[in-house]
């Protein structure tokens, strides 16, 4: 069994490395995937991608705000995710995007579950929220499979591809997460007598 709590049965989450720029370049050239992720970006040159990866590789993960690479257990980069904490609400949100060839293997679901366990179990956050286009069927399924609740829908919540689209807001509390995914990750020694 692994001692790394950022490693699951399918994927491992690791810090960004400077040489990950090639993967960001590849993932960034799929406009349709970009759109499903949130918005389409114009192309950027190699230097911009190098600089982005270099900057990300140097950032310290501060108070639950970080970007991680999602890789298979064989070490093949599959995508990335980034988090943003709202300290006043004791909640966090995230963005996640996998390269198209990594869709549909359960990598996304496991990556989000690994992050939730860290946020709830280590940082004592209380709630996670995710914003998902209503048309993004794969992401809607993933969030339902994770045990999230559809808490509301922003009608015409975001503009892309020439029109406004509804945006679902999914949410899950720490208690709901632990009830579905198990309370403890590790096998910590219990105090004597328990
Ligand atoms: C959304 C995303 C993160 C999901 O990760 P993933 O690893 O592909 O998802 P999973 O394999 O864990 O789960 C996908 C679920 O969608 C289902 N699914 C796949 N294609 C589908 C489709 N066309 N319509 C409906 N459901 C679909 C799968 O069957 C699976 O559900 P199941 O396990 O109940 O069968 C990933 O596909 C991705 O990065 N997409 C592009 C960017 C994006 O949309 N980001 C999310 C923004 S909120």
Describe this structure in words.
The model has no long low-confidence stretch (mean pLDDT 95). This protein has one domain (11-181): Aminopeptidase (3-Layer(aba) Sandwich). The protein has a seven-stranded mixed β-sheet, sandwiched between helices. It is an alpha+beta fold and 194 residues long. Strand 6 and strand 7 form a beta hairpin. Helices cover 31% and strands 30% of the residues. Bound molecules: coenzyme A. The site of coenzyme A has 23 residues, from helix 2, strand 4, helix 4, strand 5 and helix 5.
Compact description:
The protein has 194 residues and is of the alpha+beta class. 31% of the residues lie in helices and 30% in strands.
Draw up the topology in text.
Blueprint: E1 11-15, H1 21-27, H2 31-37, H3 46-58, E2 67-72, E3 77-86, E4 91-98, H4 107-121, E5 127-133, H5 137-146, E6 149-160, E7 163-173, H6 174-181
Parallel strand pairs: 4-5
Antiparallel strand pairs: 1-2, 2-3, 3-4, 5-7, 6-7
Helix pairs in contact: 1-3, 4-5, 4-6
The structure holds coenzyme A.
Residues 33, 36-37, 79, 96-98, 103-109, 130, 132, 136-139, 141-142, 145 line the site of coenzyme A.
């Amino acid at each position: 069994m692994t001692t790394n709590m950022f490693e699951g049965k399918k994927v491992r989450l690791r810090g960004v490395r400077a040489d990950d720029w090639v993967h960001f370049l590849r993932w960034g050239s799929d406009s349709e995937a970009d759109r499903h992720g949130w918005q389409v970006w114009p192309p950027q040159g190699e230097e911009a991608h190098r600089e982005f990866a270099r900057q990300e590789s140097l950032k310290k993960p501060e108070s639950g705000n970080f970007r991680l690479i999602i890789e298979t257990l064989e070490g093949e980069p599959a995508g990335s995710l980034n988090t943003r904490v709202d300290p006043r609400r004791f909640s966090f949100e995230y963005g996640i995007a996998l390269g198209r060839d990594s869709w549909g293997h359960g990598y996304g679901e496991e990556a989000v579950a690994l992050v939730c366990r860290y946020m709830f179990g280590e940082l004592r956050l209380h709630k996670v929220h995710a914003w998902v286009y209503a048309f993004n069927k794969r992401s809607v399924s993933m969030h339902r499979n994770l045990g999230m609740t559809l808490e509301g829908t922003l009608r015409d919540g975001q503009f892309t591809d020439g029109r406004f689209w509804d945006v679902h807001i999914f949410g899950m509390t720490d208690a709901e997460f632990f009830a579905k995914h198990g309370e403890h990750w590790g096998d910590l020694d219990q105090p004597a007598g328990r």
